[in-house]
Design goal:
By secondary structure, the chain is an all-alpha fold. It contains 3 helices and no strands. It has one domain.
Length: about 100
């Protein structure tokens, strides 16, 4: 028996979260098309706001995990390089020092 699109998306988001935890990039790429199809199905159905809020919360939580994964991968690519900008968007202080307190 096929899952309701809501339940299918919950399962896909759970798989996405696990793939992100394992840094399984192949699975993350594969899940994108499946999520797109299910989201399209959900957009044509009427779900209660609380169910939509649940999906949004799960997806948002995955976004933070995926952003962290991207930062880790970028760190691996740029290993040993000085950052161009600090976390606040400012250029680092000359000599690699902290830019704290520099406006």
């Amino acid at each position: 028996m096929p899952l309701h699109p809501f339940d299918e998306l919950v399962a896909l988001l759970d798989r996405e979260r696990e793939a992100a935890r394992r840094a399984d990039l192949d699975t993350l790429v594969e899940l994108q098309e499946a999520k797109r199809i299910v989201v399209e199905q959900i957009s044509h159905s009427e779900l209660p706001r609380d169910r939509l809020a649940e999906l949004a919360e799960k997806a948002h939580s995955n976004i933070w995990l995926l952003r962290h994964l991207v930062q880790c991968l970028q760190g691996m690519i740029n290993e040993g390089e000085e950052p161009t900008y600090s976390a606040t968007g400012k250029l680092p202080a000359p000599g690699g020092g902290s830019s704290r307190g520099n406006a």
